[in-house]
Design brief:
Blueprint (H helix, E strand, L loop, with lengths): L2 E8 L2 E7 L9 H8 L9 E6 L7 E6 L5 E2 L3 H15 L3 E6 L2 E7 L4 E8 L21 E2 L2 E2 L2 E4 L3 E6 L8 H9 L9 E9 L2 E8 L3 E2 L4 H13 L6 E6 L2 E7 L5 E7 L1 E8 L7
Parallel strand pairs: 2-3, 4-6, 12-13, 14-16
Antiparallel strand pairs: 1-2, 1-19, 3-4, 4-5, 6-7, 7-8, 8-18, 9-10, 11-12, 13-14, 14-15, 16-17, 17-18
Bound molecules: 2,6-diaminopimelic acid.
Subunit structure: Homodimer.
EC number: 5.1.1.7
GO biological process, one term: lysine biosynthetic process via diaminopimelate
């Protein structure tokens, strides 16, 4: 049985998007992993399925990494899915629901979308961490990095602030930090170089996906952790290999606003049975 898919990305953080709203697609984790495989499948950083909208939202977004793990947040995909549903509904503002909450997203001029990614969760149990500790200074170091700040955006993030981002061996230390026992659910690992009070360079080793060109929830965690550390204001542009996101950690409710582009690369049809049982 052939089913339609859409290949999308946000700053090169790419997704295969399927629509499971009319009927459960019945995909197995093995089929999802096969579709996400860059050699034997279509290839993507995350595998996204749209599911029926719970009350108070316009769509439910199910997020899986290529390793099959489910995630509670995906900022770049949130903008992409919002743009699809907004077009369908003829609206400029929609609500995307994930397992972590309701995310209002609005269309801005110039093809940009601003997502309210909800509040940053700052407690050690929120991240989560293995034991009680100050999430502003997590007792962890490896090679040239150490002393990260940690928070959750519905998924776990640790941010290492560095002086020279280009000197960090991300591919070597990223996977070791992702799976460090201090993170019982693993973690997305951000390496951030603050270049001014309103600009940060960021590279992310993503949980369950590895090195990506951009990470929306990672950018959210970075602006939060940078401001908590007194390194930036509440607003900053975050430059990742795939491009820029404009970020704000809003005063008052502590929600994180993320503004950036969306793109469709191509659409097609696929047969799930071709990717295993
Ligand atoms: N790898 C992440 C999910 C995708 C996050 C990223 N693509 C984004 O844009 O936020 C995790 O396991 O929590």
């Amino acid at each position: 049985m052939m089913i339609p898919f859409r290949k999308m990305h946000g700053l090169g953080n790419d997704f295969v998007v399927l629509d499971g709203r009319a009927a459960d697609l019945g995909l197995t984790p093995r089929q999802a992993a096969g579709i996400a495989d860059r050699h034997f499948g279509i290839g993507c950083d995350q595998f996204i399925v749209m599911e029926p909208a719970p009350a108070g939202s316009d769509v439910f977004m199910r997020i899986r990494n290529p390793d099959g793990s489910e995630a509670g947040a995906c900022g770049n995909a949130t903008r992409c899915i919002a743009s699809l549903v907004a077009e369908e509904l003829g609206k400029d503002r929609v609500v995307v629901r994930t397992i972590a909450g309701e995310l209002p997203v609005e269309r801005l001029p110039g093809g940009l979308w601003r997502a309210d990614m909800g509040p940053a969760r700052l407690g050690w149990r929120d991240v989560p961490l293995r034991e009680a500790c100050d999430t502003l200074h997590v007792p962890l170091s490896l090679g040239p990095v150490g002393d990260p700040a940690a928070c959750s955006m519905g998924n776990p993030h640790a941010t290492f602030f560095v002086d020279d981002l280009d000197a960090i061996p991300v591919r070597e230390i990223g996977p070791r930090l992702e799976t460090h026992p201090i993170f019982p659910d693993r973690a997305n690992i951000g390496f951030a170089q603050v270049t001014s009070p309103d600009h940060i360079r960021l590279v992310i080793w993503e949980r369950g996906a590895g090195l990506t060109l951009a990470c929306g929830s990672g950018a959210c965690a970075t602006i939060v952790n940078a401001h908590r550390r007194g390194l930036t204001g509440r607003r900053a542009t975050i430059t990742m290999p795939g491009g820029d996101l404009v970020m704000e950690w809003r005063e008052g409710d502590g929600h994180v606003l993320m503004t950036g582009p969306v793109a469709t690369s191509f659409t097609g049809q696929l047969d799930p049975a071709a990717f295993g049982a």
